[in-house]
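Researcher: Re-running this chain for the archive, since the previous output was lost when a drive failed. Same request as before.
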Amino acid sequence: MNCARGVIINDFSLARGGATALALLSAKLFRARDVPVTLFCGDDARHTAISDLGVDIVSVGGKPLLEQGKLHAMASGLYNIRAKSALERLIRERDTDDTIYHVHAWSLILSPSIFSALKSVAPRVVIHSHDQFLACPNGVFYDFQKRISCDRTPLGPACLATQCDKRSYVQKGWRVLRQTGLRHVLTDKHKWGAVVAIHPKMQHRLSTFGCGAMTLKTLRNPPPLHGIARKSRGEQRLLFREPDGTG
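Model: Regenerated structure tokens:
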């Protein structure tokens, strides 16, 4: 895919964790190469300084699910109509044949509705999987009640019958509904561009969410100390940290 313009899609405009930090870093790197960038974010973008780099911002003006009322959070978390409408409008008014859409975090504000909006440009969509919500209802293939890794097939009979959620089975049921909705909109027939995992061991589990025709690639997060040298005590040798974090 050639990229003459990038649209970065993320729940937040201000870094709260690794996913948003990488989303904003990618915007900065695009701008460093003079590639026009739009940040489509779920929050109100009130405190971000990314626009100082020439990044255009389109904000939904929403709040994280845990900061909303329960009923509103249940509904918007399953399908955020405002986010879908705003993204559809952005695509309708500004899309070009060489615009790439890069999805980062979506589960805390934007919801699966954004993939409904992205269907029309699916071959130019890259989905960065910082977690495993694409495949697993609780996002981590982990049974929080038993405190063990989970190997159940997502949305299979054993999965549906198990209370693995860290809060309650009601919460698990809500997550199952959201996962079902996600699979309804994120299907093979739209020929999505690619799914990017941040670790090679994520690939097998991400492949269980039913979009086998998608290109699934691994792109590790950039290590902060790669290439930094230091002297060891008593010796005149240099030690480097390798990309995988080993000495």
